[in-house]
Design goal:
Chain lengths: ~775, ~450
């Protein structure tokens, strides 16, 4: 199965096509049945893949079947994965001949294309599609002793074909199977399956039921395609495809102008980030020797001693532009809350659990580029970590002032994505991916719970019209609470373990602790507790403020909720820190063991479990919850009425209500400017300047033609002709006298004429 | 079969449409149905010949000319009837052969006023000959003749079957292109007279042969080369069209009948870029390097400017026309990088643009047929009232804005890719162009959605 992961996105594509072309003829039941069936098969296959991968790691096999092309180490060179001790040497050497290969490549390119291809092959590290094992890498410092063998055997499996070639440039088509991609396969198929089931009821009777399921399938296909891509071009394709599906699904109810505007905003904001992504792909491609888009190849290059760090930095930052928009990082996060205009299951699947983590996945996949480019290993502050940190706090702040339950969750998602990005920024790779994994489950649980609430409370998402729902819908309430505790990061739910790993990673850092990130992370954790308490209070406690009688949702909706809730409880144990290890049985850090790449991956420093930190964050969370309890439940708090008492607070509230005025900046200033004055000015230039030149040239030509005609043609030439005419008349008169009828005289005149012409010819020609 | 194709294939592909024209001329005007059938059959036969050519093409030697015909034509000036098909002309030939039958099928029941199918179809067939011939000609004079053959039918298509301002549009189109052509022929003649002589049957003569000229032009002084390139630049650049010589395009597109717009966008614009790739750059590579930064500059201006003008449009056809300016900007950027990737990107971009924009104009035409307006604001809810057309429009739009996986992307992305690494200096400049071009993709999303 590991060599055939392409089957999984392929199946979902089939599902999409079936629903798209035949969906109209089917009943709702059949349509949703097709979707559920295919995603269920994909889920099973993903589980098989997971099993295969676990097998592969636990029992390394020596031989790889011949049809699997493995990416090899750079020809002849030393293995790029160096141990901790070599790291200094690499960093030192990098200051020297770092631009060698690229410069030579450019120079060589001045000759002919084949020559430059030669140069590229010899100068830069290149990959050969040979089925050989990578050379044994040096043992990693932090891994157990057995890992040297494990590293050599558990390299990713890449099945790839040459798609087409342009001279020296090969476009590949390939699929990668390693811990990361398989984890994503599992996560996406699991959540997608539950969402497919849930939607059957939620979207029951919708006008575009077929359309919905078709796009859900297409989205799953695109997302699975994205996470299994072995090269950046394919990733770009998947990335944009999920964007389109997101666009279509946000605008699912496009009759309402608000929804189609939200869809448009999401798409356009993402396009802005994509500029960075496209340039980043180009830069990494050229940086790594202009021969391959393969991610492993690019990672290998980034880790090689001769890597051009400037290019990596620029490339990494450009790629991060894409991450900023897709993963809702500050300041391009504005589309994500608006995207909640789509159906709720879509919000759960696309805008919480899967698509928005595409950016996080991108960093994780090309981690060597970011790690080396931003010098994460030797820093105590860097761009990615800072943006992640800001996003945590900014998202959490904005979550406070929302009245729409889904928007609170959306801002919460932004904040949590900030954790993931920050974790990657501080080198806590496993923490980031682990958080991605657990977050997918508990946030999907929360979103589907919100959907269930709205289903009950007359399709409103306004928390002011809810309240007291815990009595009417116990199942939804219970699962929602579980999801909330997980999100708050309380022991021992899933969120605790993953968030703790991120914070411990910040504290630990690589060479220096990332103190600022730690502080932002802890503040974020406290704020999460606050706004989630508010949400719980407004929705489930107090008196019901809406109309009608709310009711519990049917089983089709609550069962997925329970499954996700169980996930929110237990999944954290997958990566228990070594601290909890008792006896010799291997049950701690399993996640890290199976998921973290060992091939073409930087040597990162793993943080150990820190009891003080864990207790500290728990205490902070406890205080936050207590404060919230006092404020909302007991209505006894110093913070009550603060908005009226303190002006700064009121002002801050206004800023938050206006979402930091970013929307005004984008919509009114940037978009309005480009669409309005700038576009009109261009068009004015087109019509008034260029066309005036053209038209006046035309008119000038016509005018001069007319002048030529009236003045020259009619007067001068015709004048001449006419005067010749009159002249002829007169000369005719004269000639008549000469017409004497005498042949000799004619001959004489003829001769004279010929002689005259001859003289002219002789003289002038 | 192969030997027959070798000696006759290209000539047949070029002139079969003219045979159709000859047949149609003797059929009386009133027999509309017969005219349509003859025209369609003619184009289908041409397409069949094209398919045979494509099948028999030796793809492992795509860099060489195949099915070559090389016969003396105007011996006095050593202009030859020299035709060939290689990897560059092949996709464009295929594009032409696909688009023209579609146009005839499209107009089957929808001849624009003042109808007259006979004249309309005859013009389209003549147009086809001109287009195919241009892509196959290997001799400058021959190329020029075909290049100009294209001009007249298009002029009449716009001028007779066009919209309200057809007079203005058609004359603008005609004069613009003719102006370019004039400079182009001067350049051709200058090339002819200034380059070294080659031996023809033992006699040293000047040559118009595209394959011999690159060698013969080696001795040209760089100043002369730059000037000659300038002439060709005007000729081809107007056709592309490159900013700021593009203003004929929106008018022509808006006024032309649907079929005219489709052919104009899908094939005619490609004559310009094809000219750069086939003639200007191979023959004068040195001059191309001097010109490249400027061409690149105009290309990226075109990208951004075209997109901005799109944003200001309310008319669908005009919008598509300006989007053509932007897309051809990508193609020109790729060409101006003068790299192998760039050339491939350009050719792919040309075909992709031909398909996408052709499609968009078909849709626009159909919309106009039904709604009698092309005001974008009044076209809401298309997906409800005509789901198929709506879907087609949606997918084509996605392709047009360069969504990866669809055709537009493979023209756009490699174009951006190629600008990173030019091989003749100006690397920093072109990287700047690259960034601007990438920003252009956002604007594209802005105006298309």
């Amino acid at each position: 199965m590991l060599t055939h992961v392409w089957v999984i996105p392929g199946l979902m594509t089939v599902s999409f096509l079936l629903i798209l072309f035949f969906g109209k003829r089917f009943t709702e039941r059949v349509t949703s049945g097709i979707g559920i069936f295919f995603i269920a098969v994909c889920f099973v296959l993903s589980c098989v893949t997971v099993a295969n991968w676990v097998q592969r790691i636990n029992h390394p096999i020596a031989d790889i079947s011949a049809d699997v092309a493995l990416v090899t180490q750079p020809g002849g060179g030393p293995a790029p994965i160096a141990g901790q001790s070599d790291r200094e040497a690499i960093v030192g050497a990098r200051r020297g001949p770092l631009e060698g290969s690229i410069d030579q490549l450019v120079k060589a390119g001045e000759t002919t294309t084949p020559a430059s291809a030669e140069a590229a092959t010899t100068e830069a590290a290149t990959t050969e599609p040979a089925a050989t094992e990578p050379a044994a890498t040096e043992p990693a410092a932090t891994e157990a002793a057995a890992s040297a063998e494990h590293e050599a055997k558990a390299s990713p499996i890449v099945a790839r074909w040459t798609w087409f070639e342009w001279g020296s440039l090969k476009f590949e088509f390939g699929f990668i199977a390693d811990g990361l991609s398989i984890l994503m396969l599992f996560t996406v198929t699991a959540i997608s399956l539950l969402v497919h089931i849930y939607s059957k009821e939620y979207l029951h009777g919708d006008v575009r039921f077929t359309h919905y399921y078709a796009f859900l399938s297409l989205f799953s296909a695109a997302m699975l395609f994205y996470v299994t891509s072995s090269n950046t071009i394919q990733m770009l394709t998947g990335w944009e495809l999920v964007g389109v599906c997101s666009f279509a699904l946000i605008g699912h109810w496009w009759e309402d102008k608000k929804n189609s505007d939200a869809a448009l905003k999401a798409f356009l904001t993402n396009r802005v980030g994509d500029v960075g992504l496209i340039i980043g792909v180009v830069i990494t491609f050229y940086a790594a020797g202009a021969t391959s888009f393969n991610v492993l190849h690019i990672n290998q290059y980034a880790l090689s001693p001769g890597a051009n760090q400037t290019l990596l930095l620029v490339g990494g930052l450009c790629l991060f532009g894409g991450v900023t928009s897709k993963s809702g990082q500050f300041p391009l996060h504005t589309w994500l809350p608006d995207a909640m205009a789509g159906p709720t299951p879509v919000s759960a699947l696309i805008h919480a659990a899967t698509m928005v983590v595409a950016g996080v996945y991108l960093i994780a996949r090309l981690y060597s580029v970011f790690y080396e480019g931003l010098n994460i290993g030797a820093n105590f502050v860097n761009y990615i970590a800072v943006i992640g940190g800001i996003t945590i706090v900014a998202g959490a702040l904005l979550a406070f002032v929302q009245t729409d339950i889904k928007k609170v969750l959306a801002y919460s998602t932004i904040s949590q994505l900030g954790y993931m990005v920050m974790a990657l920024g501080v080198g806590a790779w496993t923490g980031a991916i682990f958080h991605l994994f657990t977050h997918a489950f508990f946030k999907a649980c929360l979103f589907l719970g919100a959907g269930s609430v709205s289903h009950a409370a007359h399709h409103t998402f306004d928390m002011r019209k809810m309240g007291g729902l815990r009595k009417f819908m116990p199942a939804t309430f219970a699962t929602f609470i579980i999801g909330t505790i997980a999100l708050m990061g309380l022991f021992p739910f899933a969120g605790f373990w993953s968030k703790d790993e991120v914070l411990a990673g910040s504290l630990n850092g690589q060479q220096h602790p990332y103190v600022l990130m730690l502080v932002l992370g802890v503040i974020g954790a406290a704020m999460t507790c606050l706004y989630m308490s508010r949400l719980i209070y407004l929705t489930f406690f107090g008196e019901y403020r809406g109309h009608g009688t709310p009711h519990e949702s049917p089983k089709v909706m609550t069962i997925p909720l329970w499954i996700l809730a169980i996930g929110a409880i237990v999944l954290g144990f997958l990566n228990l820190p070594n601290f909890f290890k008792v006896g010799s049985f291997d049950y701690t850090t399993r996640f890290e063991h199976f998921v973290e790449p060992t091939f073409a991956f930087p040597e990162i420093n793993h943080a150990e479990f820190n009891v003080g930190l864990a207790v500290g964050t728990t205490v902070v969370a406890g205080i936050a919850i207590f404060v919230a309890y006092q404020y909302f439940w007991r209505r006894k708090s110093v913070f009550l009425g603060l908005r009226d008492k303190v002006r700064a607070f009121a002002w801050g509230y206004k800023v938050l209500e206006n979402k930091f005025y970013l929307d005004h900046l984008y919509t009114d200033v940037v978009v309005g400017g480009v669409k309005g004055p700038v576009a009109r000015a261009s068009y004015w230039f087109n019509n008034q300047v260029i066309d005036t030149v053209v038209n006046s040239a035309g008119r000038g030509a016509v005018a001069s033609g007319r002048a030529l005609y009236t003045q020259v043609d009619q007067k001068v030439i015709d004048g001449l002709v006419l005067s010749t005419g009159t002249g002829a008349d007169e000369s005719g008169e004269a000639l008549r006298h000469m017409q004497t009828g005498r042949v000799q005289q004619y001959a004489a005149l003829l001769f004279a004429g010929v002689a005259f012409l001859a003289i002219i010819l002789v003289i002038f020609v | 079969m192969k030997s027959f194709l070798d000696s006759w294939g290209l000539s047949l592909a070029t002139f079969v449409p003219l045979i159709g024209v000859a047949i149609m001329l003797v059929i009386p005007k009133a027999e509309e149905q017969l005219h349509k059938v003859v025209a369609l059959v003619t184009t289908l036969v041409t397409a069949a010949i094209g398919v045979l050519l494509l099948v028999n093409f030796d793809y492992s030697h795509a860099g060489e000319f195949q099915f070559v015909v090389d016969k003396p034509w105007i011996e006095f000036i050593n202009s030859r009837y020299h035709m060939g098909l290689d990897g560059i002309s092949l996709p464009l030939l295929a594009l032409t052969l696909l688009v023209v039958p579609l146009c005839i099928i499209y107009s089957w029941n929808h001849f624009p006023e003042p109808r007259n199918p006979k004249a309309f179809l005859v013009l389209i067939l003549i147009l086809e000959t001109g287009m195919i011939g241009s892509f196959l000609a290997e001799d400058l004079i021959l190329f020029f003749v075909f290049f100009e053959i294209v001009l007249l039918p298009m002029y009449f298509l716009i001028g007779v079957w066009g919209g309200e301002q057809r007079q203005y549009a058609s004359i603008k189109f005609f004069l613009y292109t003719l102006f370019g052509s004039a400079l182009m022929i001067v350049s051709f003649l200058a090339l002819y007279f200034l380059t070294d002589k080659v031996l023809v049957d033992g006699v040293a003569m000047h040559t118009f042969d595209m394959q011999q000229l690159p060698l013969a032009a080696k001795g040209l002084s760089s100043m002369a080369a730059v000037l000659i390139f300038g002439g060709m630049f005007m000729g081809f650049g107007i056709k592309v069209p490159i900013f700021p010589f593009h203003t004929w395009l929106p008018d022509a597109h808006t006024q032309a009948p649907t079929v005219g717009s489709v052919i104009l966008a899908a094939v005619l614009l490609k004559l310009g870029t094809y000219g750069f790739i086939r003639i200007a750059i191979p023959i004068l590579p040195g001059a191309a390097q001097s010109w490249a930064p400027w061409i690149g500059l105009l290309a990226v201006i075109g990208i951004v400017y075209g997109a901005l003008c799109c944003l200001a449009q309310t008319d669908m056809k005009r919008l598509i026309a300006f989007s053509s300016v932007a897309h051809m900007g990508y193609v020109m950027l790729a060409i101006s990088s003068l790299t192998a990737i760039g050339m491939n990107a350009a050719i792919f971009g040309m075909v992709a643009h031909g398909l996408i924009t052709g499609m968009l104009f078909f849709v626009a035409g159909s919309v106009k047929e039904r709604y009698h307006t092309l005001e974008i604001k009044r076209l809401g809810g298309m997906l409800v009232s005509m789901p198929h057309l709506g879907w087609i429009l949606g997918i084509t739009t996605m392709a047009s804005l360069g969504l990866p996986g669809l055709a537009g992307f493979w023209g756009e992305f490699p174009a951006i890719l190629s600008a990173w690494d030019t091989q003749f200096g100006h690397v920093g400049l072109f990287r700047g162009y690259m960034v601007v071009a990438a920003i252009g993709t956002v604007l594209a999303a802005g105006y298309l959605l």
